[in-house]
């Protein structure tokens, strides 16, 4: 059952023609990496003050012998786990949710391994491995049937869990998600190991030149056509992005994107749990025509909400749309899906 909802629109628009040329994954990687770290500036003088000014917001516990940082807000029978995108940390989601009134669900914001105050070891951390680390955290915390909300690259992590253990979740919300493969060329480049060092070298070289100016310039494009929230860089702890282990984690993540999506996309048609897709019409980084319109066509039980005039940071511009999406999944809990007709029947 697929429903497309348009926000702030008086007439119904037809689905735009899919962009079959699909934006280059390398371009995506290089664009995102502008918001990360600096070469040769992973010094105590830079990092320690940042960690003192922006200490862990919540609790740090050991999950599979590695530090895992989470921050909890609200109360409710259902838990919603918020997964951040590339380069950033859980503070991005905390800031985005700040305007909301009390929710009927409990919100848990997590740092993905390698970001914020969550750690990853020197083994290879695929999106699936990150998803399993978050799953282990949920199991240790006795969280039953959560809803996953993933922004941008975090959407890949959410769907890795959903594709492996769909019965463990109530549903998934993808916000400006990277959801569809880009091209066979980038998949091949990733498989032979070219992308990761290329992305890392580029991140270090670019970020080493006028880091703050480059970061602000990139964020202006990401938030466009909206403005960057006042004090955003300071509130999310911009210098946390500049630590060496975060550079490495972000480079490794971006370089594996195409491989992860090539595998995940084969499973979408069999994913029957409720999925909500929130995407900005003006998202230059992750185009809606591919990662929202094409994506919703692959899923048997999904709703698509297109936010008119909104860029990549949809969760900051319209957090209420995400809250409503979560509430729709909560309402669907009393339904079951017919495997052939793909219709949700009230129980």
Brief summary of the model shown:
The protein has 347 residues and is of the alpha/beta class.
What features would you highlight for this structure?
two-stranded antiparallel sheet; 14 helices; disordered C terminus
What does this 3D model show about the protein?
The chain is α/β, with parallel strands linked by helices. The protein is built from 14 helices and 11 strands. It has helices at residues 25-33, 44-53, 91-97, 127-140, 154-164, 184-191, 195-207, 211-223, 232-236, 244-255, 257-264, 288-296, 314-317, 319-332; strands spanning 2-7, 59-63, 66-73, 79-83, 106-110, 147-151, 171-175, 275-280, 302-307, 335-337, 344-346. Strand 8, helix 12 and strand 9 form a beta-alpha-beta unit. Helix 1 (25-33) runs parallel beside helix 7 and helix 7 packs across helix 10.
CATH architecture: 3-Layer(aba) Sandwich
How many helices? The count is 14
User: CATH top level?
Assistant: Alpha Beta
- What would you call the shape? globular
List segments where confidence is low: pLDDT < 50 over at least 5 consecutive residues.
1-27, 29-45, 185-194, 334-347
Oligomer: single chain
Mean pLDDT: 81
- Structural class comes to alpha/beta
Distance between the termini: 16 Å
Q: Radius of gyration, Cα only, in angstroms?
A: 19 Å
């Amino acid at each position: 059952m697929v429903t497309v909802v348009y926000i702030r629109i008086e007439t119904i628009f037809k689905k735009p023609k899919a962009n079959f040329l699909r934006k280059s994954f390398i371009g995506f990687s290089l664009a995102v990496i502008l918001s990360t770290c600096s070469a040769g500036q992973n010094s105590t003088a830079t990092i320690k003050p940042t960690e003192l000014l922006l200490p862990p917001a919540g609790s740090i516990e050991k999950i599979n012998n590695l530090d895992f940082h989470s921050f909890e807000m609200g109360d409710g029978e259902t838990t919603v786990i918020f997964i951040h995108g590339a380069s950033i940390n859980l503070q991005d989601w905390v800031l985005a949710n700040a305007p909301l009134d009390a929710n009927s669900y409990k919100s848990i914001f997590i740092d993905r391994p390698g970001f914020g105050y969550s750690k990853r070891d020197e083994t290879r951390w695929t999106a699936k491995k990150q998803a399993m680390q978050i799953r282990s955290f949920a199991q240790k915390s006795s969280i039953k049937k959560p809803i996953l909300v993933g922004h941008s690259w975090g959407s890949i992590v959410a769907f890795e869990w959903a594709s492996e253990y769909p019965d463990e979740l109530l549903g998934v919300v993808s916000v400006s998600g990277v959801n569809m493969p880009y091209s066979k060329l980038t998949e091949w480049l990733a498989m032979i190991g070219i992308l990761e060092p290329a992305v890392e070298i580029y991140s270090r070289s670019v970020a080493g030149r006028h880091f703050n100016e480059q970061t602000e310039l990139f964020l202006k494009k990401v938030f466009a056509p909206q403005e960057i929230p006042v004090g955003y860089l300071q509130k999310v702890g911009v210098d946390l992005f500049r630590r060496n282990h975060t550079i490495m984690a972000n480079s490794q993540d971006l370089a594996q994107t195409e491989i992860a999506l090539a595998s995940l996309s084969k499973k979408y048609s069999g994913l029957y749990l409720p999925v909500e897709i929130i995407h900005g019409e003006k998202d230059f980084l992750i185009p809606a025509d591919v990662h929202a319109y094409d994506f919703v066509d692959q899923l048997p039980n999904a709703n698509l909400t297109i936010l008119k005039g909104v860029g990549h940071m949809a969760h900051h511009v319209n957090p209420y749309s995400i809250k409503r999406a979560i509430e729709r999944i909560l309402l669907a809990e009393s339904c079951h899906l017919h495997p052939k007709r793909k219709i949700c029947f009230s129980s």
